[in-house]
Amino acid sequence: MLKTKTPVARWATRDMKLKFKDIVTSIDVLNTIQGGVSEPFLSMTEDTEGREVRVRVPGVNKNALQVEVIDNQLSVFYRIPISSNGKMMQMPQVVYNQPIPYFVDVSKVKATYEENELVVELPFNELSGGYKRKIKIG
Fold this sequence. Notes:
The protein is of the alpha+beta class. The chain has one helix at 7-32; strands spanning 41-46, 50-56, 66-70, 73-84, 87-99, 110-114, 117-123. The strands form two sheets. It has a four-stranded antiparallel β-sheet with strand order 1-2-7-6, with no helix packed on it. Strand 1 and strand 2 form a beta hairpin.
């Protein structure tokens, strides 16, 4: 018996092929810019006080790394200089880009260096233990 793909299976297969093509294209472009990019080292730990993200990018000066919080999104990136039509441009290379959870005090996020690693501290707020409230039915 010959099995045919359902419309959902065909859509999923097509979608996977497109995503794979996008990934391969991105890798190809990044590997040709300035001779390629370094694979970043990224680790995240958590304790009772908060989370900590550690970042190290071999071959990238630690002063080139930048940290931003925009609309509750934490981004760690550096810029790669590229020439386009005779003009130098700075293309951002994102190392980490994730939403900040509600239980992190965004106003107290800070970044420092320890030796050759960027350390981003994400301290917890009062909601880190969870939120519970009994609602009176009126």
